[in-house]
Write a structure and sequence with these properties.
Blueprint (H helix, E strand, L loop, with lengths): L3 H13 L8 H17 L14 H22 L3 H15 L2 H4 L11
Helix pairs in contact: 1-3, 2-3
Length: 112
């Protein structure tokens, strides 16, 4: 889990460079999407190769970029990452009760 110290470090890095002025929710959402696409690119053309062991360095790099933009987006929007993530887990738990979702990849609207 992200520690408060790590979150503060990401924000401090931004603030020391006076970049907050460029971090609108729109631009952060775009940047987050671009970095997520770069994470996906790690697996592009991999065919049946679904293992990631030999790609961990690239995955680490891109995942760190995605997490950094998540931290910055939450900061700019005044959201608490711990709070919003826990709220989402609670919502998903209601949509996907264990007894219906166990070992089933179906969307919640298709669970019986």
């Amino acid at each position: 889990m992200l520690r408060d110290e790590t979150i503060r470090r990401v924000i401090q890095f931004r603030d020391e460079r006076n970049w907050r002025q460029f971090h609108t929710p729109k631009d952060l959402a775009i940047s987050l999407s671009l970095e997520a696409a770069e994470l996906l690119e790690v697996f592009q053309w991999s065919g049946a190769d679904l293992a990631c062991r030999d790609k961990l360095d690239c995955i680490r790099e891109e995942l760190a970029d995605v997490l950094s933009y998540c931290v910055l987006m939450a900061d700019v929007c005044g959201l608490d990452l711990d709070e919003i993530l826990n709220e989402k887990v609670d919502k998903n738990a209601a949509k996907y009760p264990v007894e219906k979702a166990w070992g089933n990849a179906a969307k919640y609207t298709e669970l019986t």
